[in-house]
Amino acid sequence: MLGWLIRRVLQAALLVLATTVIVFIGLHFVGNPIDILVSPQADSVERLRLTKALGLDLPLWRQYLRFLDGVAAGDFGISFVYGQPALRLILERMPATFELAGAAMVIAVGFGIPLGLYAGLRPESPASRLVMGASLFGFSLPAFWVGLMLIFCFAVRLGWLPSSGRGATVSILGVRWSFLTLDGLRHLILPALNLALFEISLVIRLTRAGVREVLPQTFVLFAHAKGLSDTRVIFVHVLKNILIPVITVVGMEFGSLIAFAVVTESVFAWPGMGKLIIDSINLLDRPVIVAYLACMVVIFILINLIVDILYMVLDPRVRK
Amino acid sequence: MHTAPAAARLVPVLTVEDLTTVFPTPRGLVKAVDGLSFSVGAGRVMGLVGESGSGKSVTGYSIMGLVEPPGHIAGGRILFAGRDLVRQSRTEMRSLRGRAIAMIFQDPAMTLNPVLRISTQMVEAIRAHEKIPRAEAWKRSRDALGLVGIPSPDERMSAYPHEFSGGMRQRVAIAIALLHRPSLIIADEPTTALDVTIQSQILARMQLLMKQYDMAMIWISHDLSVVSRLCDDIAVMYAGRLVETGLADRVIAHPRHPYTRGLIDSLPSRARRGERLRQIEGMMPEPLDLPEGCVFSNRCPRADAACRANPVMSVSTYGAWQWRCVHPLNEGPVHGHS
Ligand SMILES: Nc1ncnc2c1ncn2[C@@H]1O[C@H](COP(=O)(O)OP(=O)(O)OP(=O)(O)O)[C@@H](O)[C@H]1O
Ligand SMILES: [Mg+2]
Fold first, then answer.
1. CA-to-CA distance for A201 and A184, rounded, in angstroms?
2. B204 shares a domain with B92
3. B140 found inside a domain
């Protein structure tokens, strides 16, 4: 167990290192941030001053070594644009993204499992066919387009829900949360729904496939033969078996939700990491980009770890 | 003058009359069970035998009210405890299942839910029929485990199915089936998947418990050697129909129907050393493509035009011994029959 954990941490460290190298080299070829940061009217003295101040005058490999030096002390550098520590910028916006992704996950599971269960139990019914057909759209429609449609329908046309920002927030332990106020919750609904669209479809299909696989098994027949009610057979015997694969996959998907939040956050002006990273890429703000990617690698690794542990807790056959 | 065999003298626990169970399929209506009649006497073991696909399991499911839709019982009666099970509501059937009639299945690896503890699966079986406190149900479950010969039942209660061997899992399933002391147990090849020593241990235990609690049993099997050891009566099925039924010893000793003869001859223990195993020639016909007249006629060594011409099979009776054959074997009074 400990050896496994150490291996995981080493893998993560290597992955972070590789990511930073790629970003350094990649951004170097994409363009010079000075061109974007300095106004076109500025003279060459001003340009030179800024180049020196940001350390961009050094050769790339020395810039990288300096960066590594900082990372060793927990410092990912100062944002070229905001003039603040890059890591702090990311961490400040992380709760907003986690809140959005978490809400999307709740929606995906809350709608996906009941719908998938129904579709699995009544595969021939028209309602099931409708659900399965709709889930195909969830897979294939582009997220930004659906986001715009949601804004158009519910914010512009009907005026029911706000279309941008986090709304009112409540601060707990220095972190601001939207879902604790009614206004914040109203702001959360549309972006969360938008982000959840793909996951709902995924959960529906997984659940349905699971039900179809479990229903013909002998233990379901035996459960009926014991005289259990249909409800008990479905919600205990069948559901407990399909929850294992569903939770594993959904857990893994949490990482993709955070990554895909980039699109949703841009459409709904949700002040999370995704919006920050898009802005930073546009401005070639290297410290922020590097810090973001490093954070993402760590988050993915943590999620994998948690899912592995969850899987062991849920499935008695792999528990030891 | 002969007297009727014992089975007929006793009041039957279960009487199946003209049972027909069908499955609509894209290619047509499959009659998995077709006009089946037999009865099971109180405290007796009825062996239901036949080749794979002859409709034995479907017969069991029909009695339990567990035929998988769109399959359904299309006709006949199943008389049990003064009621016709075919006409019971879903709720009434649910209250009978597991309490008055229990069923156990072939594959012990798949009979228990892999993600639920044994205690959960036993306690829920009790509480489905009796509103008693969980703790009491737990104690009764543990005692039931001891009864079927599971060592240290207290600890085993909190185990998961994969922590048991195949034989032990089947014992757990039997313990669950016995929880409510049902008057009838349907055992669908419960020992087929187990090795021979475990099989005999479980058989011995079942026999003991049957006597102890005065339960009747339908033992579904294609292993005639087990049937001859365990069963009082026998019913032989072929392509969804009953071809022969009677006292197990007598039917196995002097089968009237050529199909029963064929089943007995294909037993490995019957063959002498070096002699080739005898098999019934050919395959059981497709359920949608049954021959005219006697369904066995296309494989029967004795079949002639009369067998193929006669669309309605006649039943011949000798006491409780019945067979459906135009040219039966061992005709006349049977030796040793009083
Ligand atoms: N769900 C179903 N749909 C369609 N046909 C079915 C279904 N279940 C059973 N049948 C039909 O009923 C026939 C009898 O099946 P059954 O399972 O009762 O056989 P069996 O005698 O128990 O065989 P085995 O010894 O292999 O268990 C099968 O050959 C099949 O044609
Ligand atoms: Mg069967």
1. 26
2. yes
3. yes
Tokens standing for B68? 């998988």
Measuring CA to CA, how many Å separate B212 from each of B44, B215, B227? 12, 8, 20
Question: Which residue in A166, A31, A192 sits closest to A109, CA to CA?
Answer: A192
Q: Which fold has domain A93-278?
A: MetI-like fold (1.10.3720)
Spell out the per-residue pLDDT of chain A, length 320, in tens. 788 778 878 887 888 888 888 888 888 787 777 777 777 777 778 778 878 877 777 888 888 888 888 888 878 888 888 888 888 888 888 888 999 999 999 999 999 999 999 999 998 899 999 999 888 888 888 888 888 888 888 877 887 888 777 877 777 777 778 787 778 778 888 899 999 999 999 999 999 999 999 999 999 999 999 999 999 999 999 999 998 889 888 888 898 889 888 888 888 888 889 889 988 888 888 888 888 988 888 888 888 888 888 888 888 887 65
Is B111–A218 a contact, with Cβ atoms under 8 angstroms apart?
yes
The residue whose CA is least distant from atom 27 of ligand 1 is: B52
Q: How many domains does chain B have?
A: 2
pTM: 0.84
Q: Is residue B147 part of a domain?
A: yes
Q: What angle do CA A107, A113, A114 make, to 5 degrees?
A: 100
Q: Is the CB of B297 under 6 A from ligand 1?
A: no
Amino acid, single-letter form, for residue B46: M
Identify whether residues B54 and B170 lie together within a single domain: no
Regarding whether B301 and B216 lie in a shared domain, the answer is yes
Q: Which residues of A touch B129 (CB under 8 A)?
A: 227
Rounded to a whole number of angstroms, the distance from the CA of A301 to the nearest CA of chain B is: 27
Residues B118, B259: one domain?
no
Distance B288 CA to ligand 1 centre (A): 13
Q: Kindly give the interhelix angle for A143-150 and A239-267, rounded to the nearest 10 degrees.
A: 80
Judge: A218–B110 Cβ closer than 8 Å, yes or no.
yes
The rounded radius of gyration (Å) of the Cα atoms in chain A is 24
Tokens in use for A134? Answer: 């709709």
Same domain, yes or no, for B188 and B164? no
Boundary residue ending a domain (B151, B179, B207): B179
Are B25 and B117 in the same domain?
no
Domain hosting residue B260, numbered range: 11-100+183-323
Taking CB atoms and an 8 Å limit, are A226 and B128 in contact across chains? yes
Residue B335 lies in a domain: no
Rounded to whole angstroms, the Cα distance separating A147 from A156 reads 12
Nearest CA to ligand 1 atom 14: B55
Report the amino acid identity of residue B112: L
Domain end point (choices B179, B197, B216): B179
Residues 6 or more apart whose CB falls under 8 angstroms from that of A320 comprise none
Indicate whether B6 pLDDT > 60.
no
Give bridge partners of residue B188 from the DSSP assignment.
Answer: B220
Q: What is the CATH number of the domain that holds B193?
A: 3.40.50.300
Three-state DSSP state, A63: helix
From A219, A225, A232, residue closest to B124, measured CB to CB: A232
Say yes or no: CB of residue B49 within 6 Å of ligand 1. Answer: no
Are residues A227 and B112, on separate chains, in Cβ contact within 8 Å? no
- Asked if B15 and B47 sit in the same domain, the reply is yes
Measured between its terminal Cα atoms, the distance across chain A in Å is 11
Q: Where are the domains of chain A?
A: 93-278
Classify residue B336: in a domain, yes or no: no
How many whole angstroms separate alpha carbon A169 and alpha carbon A255? 24
Q: Considering only CB atoms, which chain B residues are within 8 Å of A316?
A: 114-115, 117, 160, 162
